[in-house]
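Pasting as-is:
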Amino acid sequence: MASSKNKHISVIIPTWNSAATLPRCLEALLAQSCQDFEVIVMDNGSQDGCASDLGSRYPGLVLTLHRLDTNQGYAVANNLAARLAKGEWLALLNADAFPEPDWLASLVEAAQRHPEIDSFASRLIQAGKPELLDGEGDVYHVSGLAWRRNHGKPVSIPSSEEEVFSACGAAALLRKDVFLQAGGFDEQYFAYNEDVDLGFRLQLAGHRCLFVPRAEVLHVGSASTGRGSDTAVYYGHRNLVWTYFKDMPTSLMLLYLPAHILMTLSYAFYFLFSGKIGVFWQAKRDAMRHLPKIFRLRNIVQLPRTTSKHRVHSLINKSLLLKHWVTRLKAS
C-alpha cells in the first residue's frame, strides 16, 4: 500500500456486512477530483467478506484496513480510526454513501474559504430515488427529535451555503483535533443519533457547522441494519433521549420537557399501529435506566460550555410537531 504520510485528509469508512455497497463507495473515492486523502476502513466483524483483499482490489487508493473481531458499533469504529488518522481533516463516509467526483474538493474548498468553521455537511441524495433529497444537514427540534433537513424534497430545489445544526455522519468533514478534543462519538450510543449528539456538543463548545450544497453524495441509508428495522427503532429512540438530557442547557431542557413527552407519546401511538411498540418501549426503558450515568456525563458536557443558551435556542427548530408528521407520512 502507498504511503499516507503527506495526505491532508483521512477518509474514514466503518463497515459491517457491507459487501453490497462498499465497492461502489470505494470506486467513487477513486474518481474524486481531489486525491489528497488516505482511506481508513474499519471493519466491525463483518461476515460477508466485504473487507477482503481491499488493498489488492483498489491499488489506486492509499488504503488501510483494520478489523475488529466483533461488531462494536459505528461510534467505536469511527473513534478508533480517528485516532489512527494522519490527516488534519476527517472525512466521515458511510459504506452505503457514494460521493460525486467533486464531493471532497467542494468540502476542502469551503474549509479554505471558512477557516472559522470546523465541520461541514454534505448534500445527501437518495440513491434509490435520485430525484429526491436525503438531507442537507441535520435539524434538532426542541422536543429532542432530530431529522435530516429537507429530507424527501426534490433535488431540483435551490440550495445555498448556510450554517446548520450539525452534519450527518454519512458524509461529513471535520477537523481532526476538534473531533478528538470533543471526545469523538459517544461510544455507548453504539449507532444512530451519535452524529447529532456530537454536533450538539460541538455547538456547545462554539464550533459551527456549514452546509456545502456542491458536496453531493448518493446515500442508501441503513443499508446494513435496514431502514425502519427494530435495530434502527431501538437505538434511534433510546439515543435521542440521552442526547436531550445530556446536551440541552438546563433552562431549555426544562422549558421544552413537555414537548419531549408529547413527542414520545406521539411516537408510541405511531408504533402501536406499525407493530413496533415493544421495541420502542424497550428503547425508552433502557434510556431511562441509564439516565443517572447520562446526567453524570451531562456535567462534563455543560460545565465547559462556551455557547450561550440564547444561541443554542436560536439553533434548534421550534416548529409544530404536526409539520414533522406530515412530512414523515408523505415520505413513507
